[in-house]
Design a protein that fits this description.
Family: Belongs to the short-chain dehydrogenases/reductases (SDR) family.
Order of helices and strands: HEHHEHHE
Number of strands: 3
Low-confidence stretches: none
CATH topology: Rossmann fold
Keywords: NADP, Oxidoreductase
GO cellular component, one term: cytoplasm
Distance between the termini: 33 Å
Number of helices: 5
GO molecular function: oxidoreductase activity
Pfam families: adh_short
């Protein structure tokens, strides 16, 4: 139980408290800026519909802490809207980071392939992992195009609102 608790606490500090602390620390500078955009990196793992559709029973700490970050981001969106901020959660897509995984790169690449196959089998959606460079380029394009109407949304790396298949 101690190991489980430690894993959850670590994930919570990184994925849930991390964005809150960063936003809070930089808010005075953001308020003084002409560009009032706050983007928190999210994950479809935070969505219960995706979990059910894809039958995901693993990564509980990650999913739960990303869900907490999603809600916190939405709260900031509501709180800062009258100041002209656009606050969103942005999913980077499924990124193939196996090249940075060291000795586990082959296992990670195989895991991504298995996950892509599972998504296609369960939802009919073809998911191709993005390179880190492609993901970042797509995210920057979304961030550049943010408008007040996007405030509070959970967006995909394509710019579309995140809408899981049930």
């Amino acid at each position: 139980m101690e190991e489980l608790d430690a894993a959850f606490i670590s994930a919570y500090k990184i994925n849930s408290l991390g964005p809150i602390h960063v936003i809070t620390a930089f808010l005075p500078l953001l308020r003084a800026s002409d560009t009032k955009k706050i983007v928190v990196i999210g994950s479809g793992a935070a969505d219960p519909k995706s979990t059910r559709a894809l039958r995901l029973s693993t990564t509980v700490a990650y999913a739960r802490t990303k869900a907490a970050a999603l809600l916190a981001t939405t709260k900031f969106a509501v709180k800062l809207e009258d100041e002209g901020f656009v606050v969103v959660t942005l999913s980077p897509g499924m990124v193939d980071c196996s090249a940075t995984a060291g000795a586990d790169s082959e296992a990670l690449a195989a895991s991504l392939k298995d996950f892509s196959t599972s998504v296609k089998d369960r939802t009919g959606i073809e998911v191709t992992p993005l390179t880190p460079e492609a993901s970042v380029a797509a995210q920057l394009q979304v961030i550049d195009g943010l408008q007040p109407s996007h405030n509070g949304l959970f967006l995909q790396h394509t710019g579309a609102e995140y809408r899981p298949r049930s």
